[in-house]
Amino acid sequence: MSDGVGLPAPKAMFKHFSVEDVDEAVVSTIFMFVLFIDMALRIPDLAKFCAVLAEMHQNSIGHSPEGKYGFHVPTFQGNMEQNNGWTNKWEEYYVRGLRDFIKQEQAVQGRSEELDELLVPFFEKVVPRLLRPLEWGETKIKPCLLHVDIWYGNIAERTGTDEPIMFDPAAFWAHNEYELPPFLLLAIRGPIVSSAN
């Protein structure tokens, strides 16, 4: 059974402890059981999927711990760890996360002088002008729970019902529009991938 918005919900979680072998690797092994959901690995109807995603966002507003942005543990988007420490401001969380991703990417790919030059005005001018106003007045945004890692490999249809299913989240509490860039790629690539299935 899902949590009502297309995400498989955990049924039980526990640590595995071996009496014979107290090796730290064994002691720290964690198991999670979820209900098996028979899925067709194809992109669901995008209108249905958007409705499920919007419901998840809407229903989570007001439930972030102390109204903060972040998450209580690091999560991973692919193999890149997200620094999810709590912040009071969306701009602060966004900048820290993006800087951290850039640092991880540069550790693998090396630095780019062109990117370094573009980042200065981006962080000093573009980000404050776009994000800071979201923190003011009656239209102040409130954090909602995001999946974060939406792409055609992390969504499917429930077999028999065509209900959209999302899995493998890299969740954190943030501005709902953070989900849009990867979703736009999904919308563009969706018809190509769907026709291949």
What does this structure look like?
The chain has 197 residues and is an alpha+beta fold. It is 38% helix and 16% strand. The protein has 5 helices and 9 strands; from the N terminus they run βαββαββααββββα. It has a 3-stranded antiparallel β-sheet. It has a two-stranded antiparallel sheet with strand order 1-2. Strands 4-5 form a two-stranded antiparallel sheet. The longest helix is centred in the middle third of the chain and has 20 residues, at 90-109. The model is unreliable at 1-8, 10-19 and 191-197 (pLDDT under 50).
Number of helices: 5
Main sheet record: 3 strands, antiparallel
Q: Indicate the low-confidence ranges by residue numbers.
A: 1-8, 10-19, 191-197
CA(first)-CA(last) distance: 25 Å
Count all strands and give the number: 9
- Mean pLDDT metric: 81
Structural class: alpha+beta
User: How much helix is in the residues?
Assistant: 25-40%
